[in-house]
């Protein structure tokens, strides 16, 4: 497995008053090559903004043909097909054809003919970890078609799997058995944009990056950003309540989504696609569909408030001696950068070494530190923002909160500093595999789990340099500004002993601190069994009540979520 | 009815480059006297941030004793007591006493003794427009007590009326018949605050201003502000999804509330009081209680993310020649003030004349204009903010978008400029009465309804200077930044002909533009019948489904909402 090609960055040191702060130069941007599944050529990244894994051409383990991916039904033998669901017949296909019309793009029909080459890309997720047995993909082009499809499925007890860009991390976007895939990609129109209020209305199938590009031309920005932006769809973002890089600044989709259009299992169209910022007339039902992961209905349209795009963006990267100092730096950043702070990311020293080791990139700072932080500002005035950032940097250096750091001077350097953060996900998978945990933990205790997990692996003799050790390293990084930690256990191979050492230990650790076992990735199939670690029995009971209310036959994205 | 005392402001004109911009000086602050109901001494203002009405000592019409306020059951004869609900007995009082203990502050018992003097303040709203027949007020001091009370009421079909600060505008916070009032004021503890993340956890009964003062001492701000802050409670703010003055900057409660603790009618405690910014583990049920107006449960605890407090605040007030120019100014403010813009309010010329006429205050600008706007910035750096604001002002003056304007130089002037906006509500009621509409309308058409309404009143001969004309003036103002218009028809007396000319015409006008008939005031009793103008039959049906799910016996805040 050859290392990824990178050019070692050379840094130009610039002295600020009383500080050792550097401005980085000639750092090379490190855009990853596109990672493809079957015929699908697109960015395949996480629903949760992490950089997508990349692979060199010759990396066989990552080029596993879809047909060689293990079926989910085999890796989860405890999950059995629900016998209430009807098996598809040619009559069903004919009924769907009547709804969708004869356009070849409207359906992938693996029942009437052998369409396995076309269909497998829809059956498998981008991690090549989950694979279903679907033989039919429907691609409606309108909300009315979605309504007719769901009504037919509900009437006939046919299970369905809603699918957007299929970039999720928890197996929520692909079927387990023979669920009909309802893929929203043909619903890709921007319906309207109001350039005074910033309200954008789109079909669910609009690609996030397309929407953001459309907005950029008009001086606006989509209030959500994530690594998968090139292929994830806004409907899927909403259905999974994607978090991502801009949450610290612009808040969650629960606040930004103004209105939704969604289709319930019985075909009812929930026409709540308001463009109003304020509308206090009744229960805010749309919120149930934000993060509902397609289990109570399919989002077909989204109305969202978009902020002005900031012309000035700065990124700084620095080294710190302890997690306590990371917290101090965050507190100071909030105070001094205040309204222009748009990201505060933390990466531990091991994560940066792993990134450097896997990618061959030299890290931006000359010395090594136990912790690193990346701070981004976005504002309307370049001079003001630079002044604020410099004042902040002088303060944190002067107070010895931060030990060393660099500031990007141009877009290329900015991308390179971000790569040190976003490249960790890729680096974690580089040595063969990775156990990934996406956790919310109160800020004070956020890093504790990484240190303990590392110690645990060492004590159990599972981690080391030798090929006999399954674990390469334990690293922690994430959105410190959102109390969201990514705990990655990079390994040479998947190993039952490692799994046993990790679970349920990780979940118990998080539960004790009242954290969340899934901060932004959702439940899907992967976390379904573990919801009890983050939710009480009462809450789970109330959630099941809602599921039963909207989807009494249980046809929507079955085997997942609750 | 004497005019309110005010000192005429004298303005010091300051020339900016190429502009006629002024800095105001010696504007006098105009804090309104406290308006009291019965024995209750507190700020009595709207749940929706409007300045509370004030009255001179001698203003008899506003000093109507509570016992002279007409019962809601008389003003709404079509609303009949639901016979399913049990009438209270002494056994019920004893049961509640067992739950609450013997503290005299825990109960106002109008069944066992004559407590009418004590109880009437809880029966009537601050507008003195709604009055119920409750004979029992329960004041639990813990979530467990709320749970036991509701379980008892549900088991015995006893209707309840949850009550916070009782500052609402739509009759939602007082009973109609003999519902038991569950008042949250004794649950008033701040439970915790994390000064790194800014997460505040409070009992529902904490007064908004108390929470904000607590936060101010720690450099934080509550992300909601409204005129009633001195008496409204955070639980009530959440239950009514209060909007207010900071929504443009910090977004809605749907985005800021991180967790809720609420009690369902059957006594189930919904323990969703997470302090996590991100938690994607299941349906976000708490959202149903935000804006649920106490109809499916009682909010007992709130966890909310609070932003850093901005040390620099600026306010500018200017005159414009048309509504089109207001929109241009708003667009420029969003672009140039961007991250520091914290309010953009619009007041039409008539609203400012009415304010001046009612209050005796001289307006800040020497000439009269058909429109005025108030712009507020909040940021972390005084110099930067002033520079941004001046650049913006020079631009809008240079481009002749704005005709004239003033900028506050100190806190007193800042308050005085805000008074021109907040004083309109009071001024509208000054001449005897007011028909108030709180509307969301797409920005382009926002002002159209005011012009048409004015014309309508004139054409029907209802408006004029003579005492025989019921209508004094029609004015429009509001949160332009949120597309939220307050349409006020100031009148000398309430008159059936005026009412007939206004309704359902206003609601139809709003419906045609896909607006909302209640942007931030909620439904309560006042708007219950009109929800169909802003929501489709499908949506109302789905909402009723949720109501039936959580409150099958209908005991929660009956006769209101849906």
From TrEMBL, chains A, B:
The lineage of its organism: Eukaryota, Fungi, Dikarya, Ascomycota, Pezizomycotina. It catalyses: (R)-malate + A = oxaloacetate + AH2; (R)-lactate + 2 Fe(III)-[cytochrome c] = 2 Fe(II)-[cytochrome c] + pyruvate + 2 H(+). Its cofactor is FAD. PROSITE patterns: FAD_PCMH (PS51387). Belongs to the FAD-binding oxidoreductase/transferase type 4 family. InterPro entries: FAD-bd_oxidored_4_C, FAD-bd_PCMH, FAD-bd_PCMH-like_sf, FAD-bd_PCMH_sub1, FAD-bd_PCMH_sub2, FAD-linked_Oxase-like_C, FAD-oxidored/transferase_4, Oxid_FAD_bind_N. Pfam families: FAD-oxidase_C, FAD_binding_4. Catalyzes the oxidation of D-2-hydroxyglutarate (D-2-HG) to alpha-ketoglutarate. Also catalyzes the oxidation of other D-2-hydroxyacids, such as D-malate (D-MAL) and D-lactate (D-LAC). Exhibits high activities towards D-2-HG and D-MAL but a very weak activity towards D-LAC. It comes from Saxophila tyrrhenica. One of its GO terms (molecular function) is D-lactate dehydrogenase (cytochrome) activity. Keywords: FAD, Flavoprotein, Metal-binding, Mitochondrion, Oxidoreductase, Transit peptide, Zinc. It is found in: Mitochondrion. Its EC number is 1.1.99.39. This is D-2-hydroxyglutarate dehydrogenase, mitochondrial. The gene is DLD2. Residues 46-65 are annotated as: Disordered. One of its GO terms (biological process) is malate metabolic process. GO terms for cellular component: mitochondrion. Residues 130-309 form the FAD-binding PCMH-type domain.
